[in-house]
Specification:
With about 160 residues, this protein is an all-alpha fold. It has helices at about 5-15, 15-25, 30-50, 55, 65-115, 120-135, 155. It has 7 helices and no strands. The protein is rod-shaped.
Length: about 160
């Protein structure tokens, strides 16, 4: 029992407030096990004195269920946090890939426009969409489009 000595110290010499402050300062995932240790220590002390905690403390027979419910809530919260982090990481990965693809389209469109390729007219339309995306995303840099007439945000938005 990892916390037995500290719990005995708090139970024998500390106040309820000190016990609660110490418990709350422990890692969340360990708190249910600590509460189980508290229960075990209390049962051992009661048995030693010939007492029955279920008779002495109303609802004590439900203590295991309460601890289990608390542990389930902690685990549910930790799972939700992990799922949130994974979703954010996935979103960042998708956004990064999207920005990389837009960058590639931009470079290709600029090259086609500047070299007057056969598809320059289509690439000019694509460039307008890329510029709109860049402006909306807050990443527009006029230097990237320098030297291409008719493609400033003021002209296309």
């Amino acid at each position: 029992m990892k916390y037995r000595q500290k719990l005995l110290e708090l139970m024998l010499e500390g106040t309820d407030e000190e016990m609660m402050a110490w418990l709350e300062a422990q890692p969340l995932l360990e708190q249910p096990d600590i509460l189980r240790e508290v229960k075990q220590i209390a049962e051992e002390a009661a048995k030693k004195n010939g007492d029955d905690l279920n008779e002495m403390l109303e609802g004590f027979e439900n203590f295991d269920g309460i601890i289990d419910n608390y542990e389930d809530k902690i685990l549910d919260e930790k799972l939700a946090e992990a799922q949130y982090v994974m979703a954010l990481e996935k979103q960042e990965k998708v956004a990064k890939k999207m920005f990389e693809q837009v960058e590639g389209m931009k470079e290709y469109a600029i090259e086609c426009i500047l070299t007057n390729a056969d598809n320059a007219a289509e690439m000019r339309e694509l460039a307008k969409l890329v510029i709109k995306f860049e402006v909306d995303a807050g990443i527009y840099n006029k230097e990237d489009w320098k030297g291409i007439d008719g493609l400033s945000p003021d002209e296309i938005l």
